[in-house]
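User: Please go through the entry that follows and flag anything odd:
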Amino acid sequence: MKKYGLMLGVLLILILSACSQKEELPPYADSLTGSSEVLIRKEEASRTITDEQELSDMIVLLNQGKAIEPPEEAQGINPATAKEAVLMHFPKVDLVYIGDGHVLSGLDGTYYEIPEDIEDYLKVK
């Protein structure tokens, strides 16, 4: 009987620990919370996103960021990469999208890999 109680206790602990694990968010996630707008700037053109749903969908994608080593296109000074870079200026943090699902955080200088679907929000007319 003790054996079954011990096994049940271990099983309960495993289930609780698996359920309590939450997805780890990038450090900039807190700075995005509560944002009511974001300025998207590419070269000479810019636009501001203020639509709640569009902004919310964009933040969901950015919060999926996983820290990575600096990508190849970020090594050294690359004019082609700089020309394609897109600034995302939120009230509390700046993020720079350099393409191929890579973003640079202005908070800590870390690169993050995010879904390339973010490009749908970075179009400037």
Q: What stands out?
A: The first helix runs from residue 2 to 20. The chain has a mean pLDDT of 84.
